[in-house]
Write a structure and sequence with these properties.
single chain, 140 residues, alpha+beta, Nuclear Transport Factor 2, Chain: A, four-stranded antiparallel beta sheet, two-stranded antiparallel sheet, 3 helices, 18% helix, disordered N terminus, NTF2-like_dom_sf, YchJ-like, YchJ-like_M
Length: 140
């Protein structure tokens, strides 16, 4: 699956500086854009939101870079056939700027070949080398 809504290139949408961020938390240039460009996420929730946005725009490098190497699969390439159409953050536990671990429960809504659905997950994050990384998730 992959996470989407703007002009497409290579099957994935692209976002400009003033566009609303796919994660729903602000403008792309002040929200997920800088994190996808390499800026560290200040919280586990911000990392989770940036990873959702990476699925939307097909940024496999960001997914690779922000996935704990111990749990990262060999293939993290997003699927352009799945269009991600919205994100709801339901619960955030720890994961603040001073924490070492955190969890975020969310529902990511998708559309693919005329079908719609949602991915409801509780994701775990850890701070590694001063940066947040995704460890694993439990599908709910």
């Amino acid at each position: 699956m992959s996470f989407g809504a703007a002009s497409s290139r290579g099957g994935f949408p692209r976002f400009a500086a003033g566009d609303p961020c796919p994660c729903g938390a602000g403008r792309y240039d002040g929200c997920c854009g800088p994190i996808l460009a390499g800026e560290p996420a200040p919280t586990a929730e911000r990392l989770m939101r940036s990873r959702y946005t990476a699925f939307v725009v097909g940024d496999a490098e960001h997914l690779r870079r922000t996935w704990h190497p111990r749990t990262r699969p060999a293939d993290v390439d997003p699927d352009p056939a799945t269009v991600w159409i919205g994100l709801e953050v339901l619960v955030t536990e720890d994961g603040g700027p001073a924490d070492l671990e955190g969890a975020v429960e969310f529902c990511a809504h998708w559309s693919e070949a005329g079908a719609r659905g949602g991915l409801h997950e509780r994701s775990r994050f850890a701070r590694r080398g001063g940066r947040w990384v995704y460890v694993d998730g439990e599908i709910l």
